UniProtKB/TrEMBL annotation, chain A:
PANTHER family: NEGATIVE TRANSCRIPTION REGULATOR PADR, TRANSCRIPTIONAL REGULATOR YQJI. Residues 7-80 form the Transcription regulator PadR N-terminal domain. Gene3D superfamilies: Winged helix-like DNA-binding domain superfamily/Winged helix DNA-binding domain. The lineage of its organism: Bacteria, Bacillati, Actinomycetota, Actinomycetes, Micromonosporales. Pfam families: PadR. It comes from Rugosimonospora africana. This is PadR family transcriptional regulator.
From TrEMBL, chain B:
This is ABC transporter ATP-binding protein. GO terms for cellular component: plasma membrane. SUPFAM superfamilies: P-loop containing nucleoside triphosphate hydrolases. Keywords: ATP-binding, Nucleotide-binding, Transport. Pfam families: ABC_tran (PF00005).
TrEMBL record, chain C:
Keywords: Cell membrane, Membrane, Transmembrane, Transmembrane helix. One of its GO terms (cellular component) is plasma membrane. This is ABC3 transporter permease C-terminal domain-containing protein. It is found in: Cell membrane.
Length: 175, 224, 750
């Protein structure tokens, strides 16, 4: 789970207050992992600001961290782009990350389907490696490879299902 | 080098467009997985590549010969000599024994009976079917029937094997075994394979995969 | 490829084998019957083609033969007798004889030889002078039952007999059978009637489970079988079944063969060795049936597109339309109109009638699918429930194949109805069941010149000088009561007939002595005191006993008595009451001495025998017709069973699926029953109607004017219902098969 880039992705469509960011994050992804704590949120935002990926637009009267509005920078957008378009290393338990990527892509009108295709290819490539491995090795390695294969297969099924329902998902999150 | 290629194929069945500008190519000895959701046109692509029917437009080239303009008779002959087929349900001739089925393409090609049967029988041990030669199709398990189908597809020494969901009707373990045997055998024979499947595990036996979506090939593996 | 086809046909497991067996058996039934018909036809052609030496009638003043031909009766059979003398060199020889008999010798047919050995001389043998010289061979006979004798005489014995002719050449042309056209027509009808259900049966048999076979061909196409190779394999399959069927059919023919020789098709049996389909017939069947099977198989393959991916019907056949009834209507019109147009002739022109019949039968076949569709609509409208829905859908979906199952039976019903309507009419018009009080009375007419145009050369009847000894001899036979009928004298001729008799006019009047008449009460009672009376005897020579009875008694209370001594007049006719067959034959033996004086048209027969001759003909027709209808029904039943079983095999998969998903076997049974019985009933009603319309005009033409058209006997309705019940039974008998093929434990889908 890449929380900094996720926050960048959420900021990409429009500038936002920290409080709104937390609410978006929790609404979209809380089922996926844990709620985002305020400590984690502001810590991360500070780091992003320090790295030049976001900038503070200005604070509303009243001061305090809640009052700051954040906006993504060029560097931040590039970071989001890179993260989305690079497939994740195919390994078990990726769903949370893949899901975030899809949602962020949809939010920013990026080609989500394409990212999924790239991810699918990465998965298949890994499956081919595992298939080769399981054929060559002893039964113990075969079984290990099978474990990986079955999980990757589950990911792939999820990718296929998601790819087929992107439009529905877009409608849902843009509501 | 390319042994089989398709360029800009279109094919419609009535109002349904199955292929809409599909292109692909296959190298000799290569195993190519064709993936895609149901109804994407992947089976139609296979049927066009195999000369089972001609595309509405576009070209199919096999071994420098144009398949799309060939007569049905020539395509039939080509299917017999240069192509092999393994489909989901084996498509074995139910009334014949296993060895009859394997010998069938050879007999159709006019080979002498003794030779044909000797050659057909030689395939049974390779496919771990020894002893089942004289079983009728109905007396074989699904996995055995598919292996007989593999034998029947490869007995003529084809250049390309067309497999359409070859394990679609089998459980994982049986399917895996059929795939292993099939892949081992085609590797040994140097046969190229078009492997149509929606199953990633099956596709992972391939060297490369392409995805068909909405009648078009989305080339992948390498981004284009 | 042919070898491979053979391999596929013969070694392809149980289902293929069963199909082969059913095909072969069905073809066998058809071929066996076809061969029988051919054999009978050959025998018939052979028989009617034989030279009719009895018909020799061309006189030749320089001929070398004296020829005296006459006919006689024995026990209901006609005997042909030729008295012959050689008067010149190089005399022709009667066919079947090695040489003409020398004076004092005779040749007889085998049947007559047997009879002569078994019968006392005074009943038969004494009629023929001379000694047995030999047996007449088949060349001179029409039937092994023929009673024929050729007797040799001195020329002087024959030369002055009035009926003797001098002939040079014996006739070699066949008998110009007036009935031959009728029999040709009958044969053609019989062949058509048998052939069409047979073709339906063979067609159904070779099409069993065609869809499953086509699936198999698709698999072969996938691995690179060319269309032509598929055609070869399919043809081999059909041909093997057909050849096997022909072989079995020849076996069946061999079984039927002994029975054929006892079928008196023309009223007598055929020579055993002429009953053969001939070598060409066998070869023709052996070639034609498999060829037809192959052709029909290829035609049915043309209708489907067998691609490597499976079988696609070229197109869903459009629903049958109402034009399909047109050929039937045209056929009916062709059949009925000529008959109605000329009520006088009982059967229009045979050629046209055969054509019309073929048109009617094919018309029925063509209109069937349309009818089936209409029936399915009714079924859908009137019924509720799963099975009727399934059945109605199936019928509406493919009325052609549903109809095909019942088509044979429908033809059988049509033929049966037509016959059932015809036969009672024909039989009734003859009224063979009537017995007459004159049944055991022999009557014989003596040669007469026409009294209006007297021919000086002929003797009128038996002169008193001849009649006296004859009457004495007859009276001496125990059990024989002769009653002579005399010619009226000139004076009696003046008396007008009392009433308008059936054929009255001058010459109808005969004189009978009242003393004689008393011994034959059926003639009637003389007015008191009369010695002799004039009576109208013109009805004596009708062969219709019913008509005869209408004119009895001949002596009416108002019959004119005559006082002239009748015994001085010539005897015109003679009645002899006999008490037994032996007495009858003895009487005939005595009469054979007077054969020169007996009118050739009025040979000595009892009234009973005269009636029986006609009755026998009609009984034979009825028997043949019954056999024909039965065989047609049998063939049609086989066709039905084959079609139903085939239909079930074809739909094994959907039926099994229905069963797997919980449809009760009962529902499936009801479905199959409904979808078969509905077209069956529709077809039966139509066929019965058509049969009636075909038969009615003929029946009307056959019916004598004084009798109306006779409706089919109630037994017809029973037969029809029985036939329907049998069909339903056949269908029901096929149902357990359905249970077996759809058993869920066998639910494996290749």
């Amino acid at each position: 789970m890449n929380i900094p880039t996720t926050l960048l992705g959420l900021l990409e469509p429009e500038p936002s207050h920290g409080y709104e960011l937390k609410r978006s994050y929790d609404t979209l992804f809380a089922d996926n992992g844990r709620l985002l704590s305020f400590g984690q949120l502001y810590g991360t935002l500070n780091r992003l600001e320090r790295d030049g990926q976001i900038q503070v637009l200005g604070a509303s009267p009243g001061g305090g961290p809640d009052r700051k509005q954040y906006m993504i920078t060029e560097t931040g957008v590039a970071q989001v782009e890179t993260w989305l378009s690079e497939p994740e290393r195919p390994e078990p338990m990726l769903q949370a990350t893949l899901f975030v990527k899809v949602v962020l892509a949809l939010l920013s009108d990026r080609p989500a389907a394409r990212y999924l295709d790239v991810q699918r290819d990465a998965h298949l490539e890994r499956m081919r490696e595992l298939t080769t491995m399981r054929k060559a090795g002893p039964l113990s390695r075969t079984m290990l490879a099978d474990y990986g294969l079955f999980h990757l297969e589950a990911d792939l099924r999820w990718i296929d299902m998601t790819a087929a329902r992107l439009d529905q998902l877009r409608d849902e999150i843009s509501r | 080098m390319t042994i089989l290629s398709a360029d800009n194929l279109t094919k419609s069945f009535g109002a349904t467009v199955a292929l809409h500008g599909a292109s692909m190519s296959l190298e000799p000895g290569e195993i190519l997985a064709v993936m895609g959701p149901s109804g994407s046109g992947k089976s139609t692509l296979l049927h066009c590549l195999a000369g089972i029917f001609a595309p509405d437009s576009g070209t199919v080239t096999f071994d420098a010969r144009r398949l799309d303009t060939m007569s049905d008779r020539e395509r039939t002959r080509l299917r017999r000599t240069d192509f092999g087929f393994v489909f989901q349900f084996g498509e074995l001739v139910p009334e014949l024994t296993a060895v009859d089925n394997v010998a069938l393409p050879l007999l159709l090609a006019g080979m002498r009976r003794g030779t044909a049967y000797a050659r057909a029988r030689s395939w049974f041990p390779r496919l771990e079917l020894a002893g089942l030669e004289d079983r009728r199709t109905g007396e074989l398990s699904g996995g055995q029937a598919q292996r007989v189908a593999v034998g029947r597809a490869l007995v003529t020494g084809p250049k390309v094997l067309f497999a359409d969901e070859p394990t679609g009707a089998l459980d994982s373990l049986t399917g895996e075994k059929v795939m292993d045997l099939m892949v081992d055998t085609v590797r040994a024979e140097g046969t190229a394979v078009i492997l149509v499947t929606h199953d990633a595990r099956v596709a992972s036996h391939a060297d490369r995969q392409i995805t068909v979506r909405d009648g078009q090939v989305i080339a992948s593996g390498v981004q284009v | 490829m042919i070898r491979f086809g053979l391999h596929m046909t013969l070694r392809s497991g149980r289902e293929a084998f069963t199909r082969l067996v059913v095909t072969a058996l069905s073809v066998a039934v058809g071929v066996g019957l076809l061969l029988s018909v051919l054999a009978m036809y050959h025998a018939y052609r052979d028989t009617i083609g034989k030279p009719c030496w009895q018909c020799t009638s061309t006189t030749d003043a320089h001929g070398s033969l004296l020829w005296n031909y006459s006919e006689d009766e024995y026990d209901g059979a006609t005997m042909h007798r030729l008295d012959v003398a050689i008067v010149g060199a190089h005399a022709s020889v009667v066919p079947g004889l090695s040489a003409m008999p020398a004076p004092g010798q005779y040749y007889v047919s085998p049947a007559l030889a047997t009879l002569l050995r078994a019968t006392p001389g005074d009943e038969l043998g004494d009629r023929f002078p001379g000694a047995l010289a030999g047996i007449i061979g088949p060349a001179g006979l029409q039937s092994p039952d023929d009673l024929v004798i050729v007797i040799g005489h001195q020329a002087s014995d024959l030369s002055n007999l009035p009926r003797t002719m001098r002939v040079g050449r014996i006739q070699t042309a066949p008998h110009d059978l007036s009935t031959s056209q009728f029999y040709q027509f009958g044969f053609a009808m019989g062949a058509v009637v048998l052939l069409i259900p047979m073709l339906v049966l063979i067609g159904n048999a070779t099409r069993i489970a065609a869809a499953r076979r086509e699936q198999r061909y698709a698999a072969m196409r996938l691995v690179g079988a060319e269309r032509s190779q598929i055609n070869v394999v399919a043809s081999v399959d059909a041909v093997v079944g057909a050849v096997l069927g022909v072989a079995l059919g020849i076996g069946l023919y061999a079984v039927l063969r002994p029975a054929l020789k006892d079928i008196p098709l023309l009223g007598y049996r055929f020579f055993d060795d002429t009953i053969t389909p001939t070598g060409w017939g066998f070869v023709g069947i052996l070639v034609a049936v498999p060829a037809a099977a192959a052709i029909s198989c290829l035609l049915s393959l043309r209708r489907v597109q067998i691609s490597p991916l499976g079988v696609a019907r070229r197109a869903t056949p459009p629903a049958p339309r109402s034009w399909r009834v047109i050929p039937l209507l045209i056929g009916l019109a062709t059949f009925i109109i000529p008959v109605l147009a000329s009520p006088g002739s009982s059967r229009g022109t045979p050629d046209l009638a055969v054509l019309a019949l073929i048109l009617v039968m094919t018309g029925l076949m063509i209109s069937g699918p349309w009818l089936t569709m209409m029936a399915s609509r009714l079924l859908a409208r009137w019924t509720v429930g799963g099975s009727s829905l399934l059945a109605a859908r199936r019928l509406a979906d493919n009325p052609r194949s549903s109809f095909r199952a019942v088509s044979g039976l429908m033809l059988a019903v049509m033929v049966g109805t037509a016959l059932a309507a015809l036969v009672p009419a024909a039989i009734d018009s003859q009224d063979t069941t009537h017995t007459s009080p004159l049944r055991n009375v022999l009557r014989v007419g003596f040669l007469q010149s026409d009294r209006l145009k007297p021919d000086p050369g002929t003797i009128d009847g038996l002169t008193p000088a001849q009649a006296g000894p004859l009457l004495a001899k007859l009276a001496a036979i125990p059990g024989a009561v002769p009653v002579p009928l005399y010619q009226p004298s000139q004076a009696d001729d003046a008396v007008p007939p009392p009433d308008e008799g059936p054929m009255s006019g001058p010459g109808g009047q005969l004189v009978v002595q009242c003393a004689d008449a008393q011994r034959l009460p059926a003639l009637g009672v003389c007015p008191a005191g009369a010695r002799a009376v004039l009576m109208d005897g013109s009805a004596m020579y009708t062969d219709n006993l019913r008509a005869l009875n209408d004119y009895l008694p001949f002596i009416k209370p108002d019959s004119h008595a005559t006082s002239n001594d009748a015994t001085r007049q010539p005897v015109s006719d003679l009645m002899v009451k006999v008490d037994s067959q032996a007495t009858l034959e003895r009487v005939r033996t005595v009469l054979s001495g007077y054969r020169e004086d007996i009118s050739p048209y009025d040979t000595p027969m009892t009234f009973g025998e005269v009636g029986d001759v006609r009755a026998r003909l009609y009984l034979e027709i009825q028997r043949i017709v019954t056999i024909l209808a039965g065989v047609t029904l049998l063939v049609a039943g086989c066709g039905l069973a084959v079609a139903i079983s085939g239909g079930m095999v074809e739909r094994k998969r959907p039926f099994t699926l229905l069963r797997v998903t919980g449809t009760g076997l009962g529902t499936l049974y009801r479905t199959v029953l409904l979808e078969t019985v509905m077209p069956l009933i529709a077809a039966t009603v139509l066929a019965a109607g058509v049969g009636m319309s075909v038969a009615y005009p003929i029946a009307r033409a056959l019916a004598p004017e004084r009798h109306g058209v006779v409706l089919p006997h109630p037994s017809y309705a029973l037969t029809l219902c029985g036939g329907l019940l049998i069909s339903v039974a056949i269908i029901a008998a096929c149902l357990p098969f359905l249970s077996r093929i759809t058993a869920t434990q066998n639910a494996r889908f290749e």
